[in-house]
Write a structure and sequence with these properties.
The chain is built from 6 helices and 10 strands; from the N terminus they run βαβαββαβαβββαβαβ. It has about 240 residues and is α/β, with parallel strands linked by helices. Helix 2 links the parallel strand 2 and strand 3. Helix 1 packs across helix 2.
Length: about 240
């Protein structure tokens, strides 16, 4: 599958060589710090370009960050949000990322322009359709991402064929986590973003965090420089 704005394969195979770390005492304080930083970047993007295009994660970890972000006095009607990935479930399924994003973010800020991924169409068709949705976005201003305990980000998993795709949006098959079929922003899209942010917390992330800090070529280490907002438990034992 090929979509517009594809990068060459050499460009997406490089591991990042620089991360920026903000370490807080808890997930709650890390989420607040991330919200402060993201709000500043949204404001800067709107001031520079009149609009902000932001990739946002699903799941429960970003909930506190979204709640803190919603308190900021920003021109929210100039923000366009796009899921970083979506699970191929029917519309409204409780495990879909857009359901979680609506619950934690859009319910607080109804004026945001939200562009859901049509994953109910199936991975291949949905990925092609979403390529057209983001075709006019030259580069996302902010890619706010999550990170799994295996080092995956969006739905780009270690060893999965989707990592090698150069399309702006990719179909993901054989996901190690259910459902097996998903769609995801491609590695090329995440690398083109002007800024990348990851919020991660908990002792369960400590082992993978050590591998990230060691420079292992995990998916999250291939997207480019990242501003990390983490809690102390997730980096316990990691050389600071």
């Amino acid at each position: 599958m090929r979509c517009s704005k594809a990068a060459n394969s050499a460009g997406i195979s490089q591991a990042t060589d620089m991360h920026h770390w903000a370490i807080s005492s808890s997930l709650e304080s890390a989420a607040e710090a991330a919200a402060d930083f993201i709000a500043q970047q949204i404001a800067a993007s709107i001031e520079a370009r009149g609009v902000c295009h932001m990739i946002v994660p699903g799941g429960n970890t970003p909930a506190g960050c979204f709640a803190a972000l919603a308190k900021k006095p920003l021109p929210w009607d100039r923000l366009h949000c796009y899921p970083g990935d979506e699970r191929c479930y029917p519309e409204g399924h409780r495990e879909r990322n857009d359901v979680m994003i609506r619950q934690h973010l859009l319910s607080r800020l109804a004026s945001i322009h939200f562009h859901p991924m049509p994953a109910e169409q199936g991975a291949e068709q949905a990925a092609l359709a979403y390529c057209q949705t983001i075709e006019s976005v030259d580069a996302f201003d902010i890619a706010f991402l999550g990170m799994g305990e295996d080092g995956h980000t969006a739905s780009l998993f270690p060893g999965n064929a989707a990592l090698q795709e150069t399309a702006s949006v990719v179909a993901v098959h054989d996901s190690p986590k259910p459902p097996a079929d998903r769609i995801s922003m491609g590695l090329s899209t995440l690398r083109r973003a002007r800024l990348r942010v990851v919020l991660a917390a908990g002792a369960s992330k400590a082992a993978i965090m050590a591998r990230i800090r060691a420079g292992e070529a995990l998916p999250v280490n291939q997207v480019g420089d990242i501003h990390w907002f983490v809690d102390e438990a997730s980096v316990e034992g990691v050389n600071q």
